[in-house]
Amino acid sequence: MNETVKEIFCSHRVKTAAVALPLIVLFLAFAPKWLFFVVLLGLLALLGHEGWPLFFGERGGFILHGPVWFLAFLIFLAAHLGGVLALSGALVIAVFVLVLLLFEAGLEAEALPRFAMAILFILYLPFFFAHLLLIWDLPEGRSLVAMVFMVTWGGDAFSYYCGTYWGKHKFSPTISPNKTVEGFLAGLFGGAFFALLLNWLGLVTITWNEAVVLGLAANFLGQMGDLFESYLKRSHGIKDSGNLIPGHGGLLDRVDSVLFAAPVIFYAYSLWIL
User: Fold this and answer.
1) Which among 137, 166, 187 is the end of a domain?
2) Average pLDDT over residues 38-59
3) Confidence (pLDDT) at 1
């Protein structure tokens, strides 16, 4: 066996995936909604813990810590209990509260960028992540949640392995030096492939062209989400958001693409397919 191929398939990434994927499939198949909410809320806490330094630095932003976490919980709870309208309303309230806090902070030089990052933090983590709760409530919601993970993580596997083996042209050398154009295109192919697979298995009853569009769009935005997190890490000189998952780094390193892909699946399915 070629040594590069052998190294890839014996990596921690593959071993982690071999353990995690069956557990995720079982969970999506049998978990009640309340348990799905509780698990996602726990994951949100971990994601926020890892993501906080990427937005505020290791020392900055602590005056916002309590209000931002309370608003994040409010947004997540609104999505769970009231759907997209409640989620949108909670986001408006969160931004309003943060603007009021900014006015209270006065004319301190760092106040405006700090509060701007707080709003971005609210959008990036609880708001985007809460779309998984909205997807759960759609027809075939469990399968659509699975689609989010399959088109992003499956596409990422295509991107990683094809980019490692065949990648020659750098995609974004400044932000993510290891990403290649070949890997990017392979990721898009993987996203479409896994969406079509779910359609072929009858788990999502949409047409094949709708599946392709959903897979391509979600994977494309997922790869942009991965680049966005890479930008945040590079701006703070951080290699990985954490070391929770062997072969992947932190939890945020594994979910960054899901954060961007979930809203695409939700709004595309709600507005175009339903």
Assistant:
1) 137
2) 88
3) 47
Q: Is 244 within 8 Å of 12 (Cβ atoms)?
A: no
Q: What is the pTM of this model?
A: 0.90
41-64 burial string, b = 16+ CB within 10 Å, else e?
beebebbbebbbbbbbeeeebeeb
Question: Are residues 8 and 37 located together in one domain of the fold?
Answer: no
**Each residue's pLDDT tens digit, 60-79:** 555 678 889 999 999 999 99
Burial class (CB in 10 A: 0-12, 13-18, 19+), 8: middle
Compute the mean pLDDT over every residue in the chain, rounded to the nearest whole number: 86
What is the number of domains present in the chain?
2
51 neighbors 236 (Cβ within 8 angstroms): no
State whether 38 and 23 are in the same domain. Answer: no
Among 90, 72, 125, smallest CA distance to 259 is for 125
User: Which of the listed residues 99, 121, 137 is the one where a domain comes to its end?
Assistant: 137
* Chain-centre distance for alpha carbon 210: 22
Alpha helices in 106-127 (DSSP H): 111-122
Shared-domain flag, residues 272 and 153? yes
- Name the residue range of residue 131's domain: 32-137
194-223: average pLDDT: 94
Residue 133, pLDDT score: 96
